[in-house]
Specification:
Two copies of one chain form a homodimer. Helix content of chain A is about 30%, strand content about 20%. The first copy, chain A, is globular. Chain A has ten helices and 13 strands. In chain A, helix 2 runs parallel beside helix 3, helix 4 crosses helix 5 and helix 4 packs across helix 8. In chain A, strands 8-10-7-11-9-12-13 form a seven-stranded mixed sheet, with helices on both faces. Chain A starts with about 25 loop residues before the first helix and ends in an 11-residue tail after the last strand. Chain A is α+β, with helices and mostly antiparallel strands. The interface between A and B is large, with 74 and 74 residues.
Chain lengths: ~375, ~375
């Protein structure tokens, strides 16, 4: 059976190669942005001028429209490794993580601008691959690509995306609204994206040692069966989705969260942000943490503690929110949503209750990239 | 007489050094953004949540408010050289070039987000220097810093700024509105920033050869007198300003440009953009090009053609616009503004009339960074 090859340095062998220098910056931008058709009524003028122009008076159904803005930077060698991240997936993810921030305020993403720093080792076709991922994400989430900046980089690939969104004033959910006795909820599952990363890193090591001394350009794909039965982990790492569906379900259920964030740095770190900004404490339960069985199995295999991964893994892009205890009944029918604990008095601190009833203080062990 | 030392690798000797790893990403962001007070009525919530929140209904005096958005990425080794660009100046410039894009649509910049990729070789104090430049620019232009993303870089310094602005629908000036017989105007002077860059590059070479074999950490500043009488050139390169004053003067004079851009890639390139998007041709006159005498003198000294520099130098951040011939009388009293030619039929193309009456087709010789 032919498995999908995720270790994607091979992709380039199937692509034709046009040097970026043959078309220059303006030619490249023209090619990347041609036939982009805005779908948001608020987009008045997209690429092609000094600025994009938006008319947020055109956002129907919003009595007091507010504009949301967020930005994320992805750097090669820090946030992604092109040895195993396909460019299209990378583009998709770079866009989606920004949408996720807008949803985390209970808003709707509407426009993005894309800044790219590209070194000469990339061909026009490869940058088109990257862009096709960004555009696919935009299509799926109904977001317009309205501008950007594309320039040469002397070093690695740099992607900087800024996203605008809209929300009615009364719908916006901040981080600082958690109240005593509120329920703490998360969507999906935790630690899965991190386990996907571990899997890819392990496989990369295997490939490197296999290729050592061989000619790596033969395009052989041995070893990729190591991904069999673990496709979901890869998907969570390589192609995360923003949980628009959860917000829609909450709206339908008539629940408005009191505080909300998306989980990019890990549950512990995000929960501590909500607690410190809301001036409350929290208590979550180890046995309530939603953990995927594939992730748990791989953690076992790799001798990792899956609870630690779930607490500190990061990149899940699931929603973490608090809501009133009165909404408990309304939450039950919402699919893929888990109540993991409750809000306490600030002096109680942020704690995890283990399976045997032991209490552990949460720590923001979120990755400090400046440390190593 | 003590001269200001622009070759600024020396700065670090006067600064204390705190490693970024000692405070982590969140600590750093907290330190950089503390006591930022929004001044724009449209800024509802700045840093500290998943997104910034803006209320553009609060922009007084605008009947049909539109939101403008632009983004610029600056990469070390491509857009700046830290051997001679002080970090504070770099921050200032990174912000101002974005404001310039908003002004080029006849809008007012209101908010920015700042994405930074920083390697370990920078200290907290150095990043504060960079940020102090960004914040100074924001203060001067009345713009709020509402968010950002700060992350570790494995390579050089990366700065990505996205700027929002507002304008009334009827005031926005696009690139595509130039009409037959319109006047072509530029503010300030051209090629000066480019000559400033040449001066800095030349001095860097001198310093390098002087320091060769010596201990470069002695902090000696010999050679800096090479900048005497040329301070204006350095200022234009290191600390450009956006021409808000010109737009105010035009408003006062009752002139609305028909098409407008800011000059970042060079007059030729920008003028060809306006002409192609407006489907017109143009004719400009060599003897009308505003050229600073310091720039002309240095070009002479360095054996460069100052007209070529003025046409293709880039980074001037002056305004280039077209306006109706009927506005001619109103333009005369506007200071620091120069009429350099007029719009022609498209079949005429884009041409420069030389001092001896010879006609030359304009070429967009703007820097193609992907070429070398």
């Amino acid at each position: 059976m032919q498995k999908k090859v995720y270790l994607c340095t091979l992709i380039c062998f199937y692509m034709s190669r046009t040097e970026i220098s043959t078309m220059g910056e303006f030619g490249l931008i023209k090619r990347l942005t041609k036939d982009i058709k805005p779908v948001q009524p608020s987009t008045q003028k997209a690429a092609g001028d000094d600025c994009a122009v938006m008319n947020f008076g055109k956002t129907k159904n919003l009595k007091s429209p507010r504009v949301l803005m967020t930005t994320d930077m992805l750097l090669e060698g820090v946030h992604f490794n092109l040895e195993y991240v396909p460019l299209k997936h990378l583009g998709y993810k770079a866009a989606v993580v920004n949408f996720s921030d807008i949803y985390a305020m209970n808003g709707t993403p509407t426009q993005i601008t894309v800044g790219l720093g590209i070194s000469k080792r990339f061909s026009v076709e490869e940058i088109e691959e990257l862009y096709s991922g960004i555009r696919l994400a935009c299509e799926r989430y109904g977001v317009d690509l309205v501008g950007g900046d594309t320039c040469a980089s002397m070093t690695g690939l740099t992607i900087s995306i800024t996203c605008l969104g809209v929300a009615d004033e009364k719908d916006i959910v901040y981080r600082n609204g958690a109240k005593l006795n509120d329920l703490i909820c998360v969507s999906g599952n935790l630690g899965t994206a991190y386990m996907g990363l571990q899997l890819l890193e392990r496989e990369l090591m295997v490939q490197r040692s296999t290729n050592y001394g061989n000619n790596p350009s033969t395009g052989e794909t041995e070893g990729t069966s190591a991904f069999e039965g673990k496709e979901y982990l890869l998907e969570r790492q390589l192609k995360p989705e923003a949980r628009r569906d959860i917000l829609e379900a909450l709206r339908k259920a008539g629940v408005k969260p009191t505080a909300m964030m998306d989980i990019s740095d890990g549950l512990s770190s995000e929960l501590m942000h909500i607690c410190s900004q809301s001036n409350v404490g929290c208590c979550i339960y180890e046995d309530k943490l939603p953990i995927d069985y594939q992730a748990a199995a791989l953690a076992e295999e790799m001798n990792l503690n899956i609870v630690t991964c779930a607490l500190n893994g990061g990149e899940d892009y699931e929603l973490l929110f608090t809501c009133s205890l009165d909404d408990y009944e309304k939450l039950i029918p919402v699919e893929d949503l888990y109540i993991i604990g409750h809000i306490t008095k600030p002096e109680y601190g942020c704690n995890l209750i283990g399976r045997n009833g032991e209490e552990l203080a949460l720590k923001a062990q979120g990755w400090n990239a400046f440390e190593n």
